[in-house]
Amino acid sequence: MNNIHNYLLPHGYIIRKAKPSDMWLVFLFIIRGRLDPSQLKWQQFLVIEHDSFLVAFGQLRNFKFAQELGSLFVVPAYRNQGLGTFLIQHLIAQSTQPLYLKCLEHQLEIFYAQRGFIPVSYEELPVSLKSKFRLSQLRKSLLKAFVVFMKYQYPI
């Protein structure tokens, strides 16, 4: 599938497509995690639950000639178990266009680089993503804030 290990979900966890009833909790976690609250369409999300409690989620946002891996979140008490990597693998497998993401923290850049994403310049982004990421690029250039755009490098 790709150049990272195939993670299995720990016993008692299930992955499934999101349901409309999941979105209030997804929205709450997105706000608490300071993630991008735009384009939250429940149909685009995969969720992982444990004991009927939503513990992780992520989505593929669709753009013209591209997709964005976004809203990846694991509840803090459930981190470091491979849940984020498991979600990334499933979202990559579902992607149908070149896949991009945006990182606002250096440690996330490292996390995604270890999972097959490479940094790309703002100029290399598809037009449809440039308009979405324009404010982040301004934040990077004017405020010298940490922003890295990344593209998934499909293995050869």
From TrEMBL:
<dbReference type="InterPro" id="IPR016181">
    <property type="entry name" value="Acyl_CoA_acyltransferase"/>
</dbReference>
<dbReference type="Pfam" id="PF13508">
    <property type="entry name" value="Acetyltransf_7"/>
</dbReference>
<dbReference type="GO" id="GO:0016747">
    <property type="term" value="F:acyltransferase activity, transferring groups other than amino-acyl groups"/>
</dbReference>
<feature type="domain" description="N-acetyltransferase">
    <location>
        <begin position="13"/>
        <end position="140"/>
    </location>
</feature>
<protein>
    <submittedName>
        <fullName>GCN5-related N-acetyltransferase</fullName>
    </submittedName>
</protein>
<dbReference type="InterPro" id="IPR000182">
    <property type="entry name" value="GNAT_dom"/>
</dbReference>
<keyword id="KW-0808">Transferase</keyword>
